[in-house]
Amino acid sequence: MSAGLPSGAASAFTVTTADGAVLQAFSEGQGPVLLLVSGLGGTAGFWKSNAATLARSFRVIRFDQRGIGASTRGTAPCTIDQLAQDCLSVLDAAGVARAVMLGHSTGGCIGQALGTMAPERLDGLILSAAWLKPSHYMSALFGARRSILDENPQAYAATAVLISYPPSWLEANWAVYEAAIAAAPISAEARQVVRERIDALLSFDGSAEIGSLSMPTLVLGARDDMIVPSFLQEDLAEALPGARKILLDSGGHFFPVSRPDAFTAKVVEWIGELT
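The chain above was modelled as a monomer; its predicted structure follows.
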């Protein structure tokens, strides 16, 4: 169920899932629908500047994932499949039958799950800074981050930012670092939400289903990504028959933020080729 269904200009609406989570969602622009799904942080706010640009060409829908931001947790286990089901709930509430989904990082895992779960709902799938299955590198990285989370939430927030952006960009945009520290998951409840999301992404392995994804797919990344290294994005593209691959030369893991013009240009161009 939903409240305040949007049309045209930017609007907020809520979605109540079967297990009682209330998801805060936003819609802006008109045209073909583009669903934006963020990564481990799970916020709609990750896409704020991108959404304003993309809304010139599309109806852009984004939302805070369960337990994140203005959305409540609900009672269902936090798994990649459940997060994909939440995407369907958002599309249903918005009255959208089909959309292109753009998933960044963990959102790319959610996108693969959604493409397997409901391929009839996707006109295309953009996997941004995404991967196919766990690697030694990512397992070690996120295991260390989870340990830091338990011991020192502010250090967790600090290291997350420091490895997500090119150092020169972060130096010039230091307010991003300060905002991340201010929003560190201090409470036990907030840490539990992050912990279960790390567990969900580490347990994801899409290798058995990847060959069944029949919708047009774009693998989009950056060569200097230190969280999801480019070799993992290369592996993902190779596992997707007919997928297009675009790797920016720089931008870090959060290249949609550090290189917004290049990012949105590639997205608009690729979706335009679908029609």
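The CA atoms of residues 209 and 252 lie 28 Å apart.
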